[in-house]
Structure formats: structure tokens, C-alpha cells
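Weekly modeling sync, notes
Attendees: S.R. (lead), two postdocs, one rotation student

Agenda item 3: backlog of single-chain predictions. S.R. asked that every request posted to the team notebook include the full sequence so nobody has to chase files. The rotation student volunteered to paste the first one in as an example of the format we agreed on. Action items at the bottom.

Example entry:
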Amino acid sequence: MLYLYDSIMIVPRLQEEFWKVMGTDYLPEAEQNGLRLVGMFMIGIHYNENLALWELDDWATLDRLQQLHDKHPWIQSWKREAVDYVTDSTGKVLEPAAFSPTLAKLKKGDYMSTIYLHTVARVSPGQEDEYMKAVGKELVPMAKTWGMKLVGCYKAVAGTASSGEVINIWTAGNVHGDWVKIRAKSLKDPAYKEWETRAGKWRPKVVYRFLYGLVPYSPLRTPFLQEAAIEEVRTVAMPEVEWK
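Predicted structure, as returned to the notebook:
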């Protein structure tokens, strides 16, 4: 498996309109051509930044998608439509760890969450695989005791990425209060303190962000999200935002 990671900057306050247009005009064709949506998220605090995570089978599929991107009329039409919403975008190609859940597993399991924790570790060159194995062996079972589940563990192998990037995505609860409890448990866990000490030999820096699963057709989303309930979800997950 491979994964495409698209960071998309949206015109402020047009996120929902863009989500709807993407769901009707891009997603069906994309899935017919081997690109499967894993999650469509809004980035916490930096609300006009969105993240689309896609699964595809292999590099040959990526080559075929690139040819479509350059030539297919559907893609050209989508590009003209998307320019009304998208101000910038960058992409990465990711390879998953052996223990990273596939989309099929995510759909079968209990991985829906209003809030997801996204981390980017800057791993020393050549040590990505060793670090990822340690994440699977040590951090995944540890985080489960705090109330978190691993959605994905990936290393960046192409695209707009720094060397040594390892990206993890975790479930993090349905309100910010859930995350406060998870974080409190982790900080009191002696095993986590030991993990941080050991992990420092692989990665000197980690960047943390929240992802909000507010897109109804996204496989990874809040478990109680319906079109009629989206206003309630906004209020619970992001009370600081004045939605228009």
C-alpha cells in the first residue's frame, strides 16, 4: 500500500462548500481510478488548512493517476472548479509501517473520532524503520491504555517532505475534555516517560496538531456526525470558532 497526503489551503469560510463539491465532483471519479479516501480533515486552530489522506495500491497506480492528472478531461475540469476554493496545496507520498491499519481495517474497527492527534517526528537519517518498529511495539499498546488508537504510521518517501519524516495519526476523543484526560494519563505513565527518553535517540523533534473529522463522507470522522448535526459538532469540538 501507499498513501497520498495532501495539505490543502482553502479560502477562509469555504471549507464546507469545498467538502461538498469535492464529495460530488472529485471523489467518485478518484475512487474509480484507484484512489481511496481515508480521511478528510480540518487542521485545528489553522482552520483554513485541510488534510486529505488517500490510500492506493502501489506505485503503478500512482503512475496511472499522474497520467490522468496531466491529461484526463475530468481532472482538468476539477482543476478549474477547485481554483475557486483552493489557494495552495502540497503533497507527500507515504509508505505505511507493517502494523499500520489499512483502510479496510479502519472501516471495520472503531476508529471514528471527532478529534485526531497528528504528529510529525523528525527522525535521524536512516533510522526511520527502527523508530517505526519501536512505535508499533512500545507506543501503540501504551497509548491504548490511555484511550487512543493508532490510525496510521507512515514515513514520507516522496513529494514535498523533509528527510526522516514519520507521521502518526491517533484517535483523540470527541471533545477537548477527552484529550485533556488522555494527556493527563500519559503524563502520569512512567512507561511514557521512559519512551520519551528512548525515542529521543531517534527523533529530536516532534510537531503536534489536532485534526477535526467533520466531513460526513470521510471514513475517519466523528462517530455521531450527520448532516443535520454538524452545527452541534462544531460547537462541541470548536467552541472558539464563530461559524458563518
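Discussion: group reviewed the output briefly. The chain has one domain: 2-237.
Action items: rotation student to repeat for the remaining queue; S.R. to check formatting next week.
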